[in-house]
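Handout, section B. The chain below has 77 residues.
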Amino acid sequence: MKSMQKRATVYFDSHLHRALRLKAAATDESISDLVNSAVRMSLAEDAEDLAAFEERAKEPNLAFESVLKDLMKRGKL
């Protein structure tokens, strides 16, 4: 069964819209398919980022100044 689809109005910069139309024609996909795919990938990246943040939540926080001093002391700056 096909998933439920919702309709939305999205305004693109004219150059982006042209590029989307050309890519849709070249790949034989609709603009909606291209946008859905891009949004899905972006949300997947967000989910990965959130998982990484949660995984590292118990790591100690380092002060920016301390990191800079350490880099300078080791000759990295």
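Note. The helical segments are 14-27, 31-55, 64-73. Compare this with the example in section A.
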